[in-house]
Amino acid sequence: MRRREIWGVPLLAAAAVVAVCYLAVDSADREASRQGLLLYVGVRASNLVYGLMFLASFIGAVGLVFLIPALIRRITRKALRITVGWTTGVAVAAALPYLAITLTFALIGAVGLGDDVKIVATDGQSVLITQDGFDGDSVVIYTGHDEFHYKRTRDAPEIAGWPRVKDQGCRLATDDGLTLICGATSLKVDE
User: Fold this and answer.
1) Are the CB atoms for 165 and 117 separated by under 8 Å?
2) C-beta of residue 176 within 8 angstroms of C-beta of residue 191
3) Angle ∠(88,93,94) on CA atoms, nearest 5
């Protein structure tokens, strides 16, 4: 066995493990979405899903690059080896644009085009504020449902736009219900 073969198999196994993690997180995220909840584990679960998709695809592609040429070289009949080599080359050429598009969109999804701001009150209650990454005109407030889930409470056009929510120094007051205070704007969260 050559070094390339030795690295190809563990990389493919690692890609399979990451793909299983991707499927598990995606399943949990979809189940939360069906119940009207947002799964948040430090980042949105959807961002984590895209990150795992990117990682699994990239690691799997590298593993195949290491393994396939070594396996083709083991074919003893010259005509068969050339046919398999050319067929594999054509298949790789056809798959590269798809892989590039998949990796690009998975990376964009992993980075997340928007802001998520978690604000915790002094008594431990928290809200999660999401703002789109384009022009910032869509702001949604989620209240804590349990440790990892947030429930959509309301839209907040009052704090949309510029400056971004993350730059407004928002805080959460719990004196008479949940009140989000961003600069000079106060919003009742639990309306």
Assistant:
1) yes
2) no
3) 95
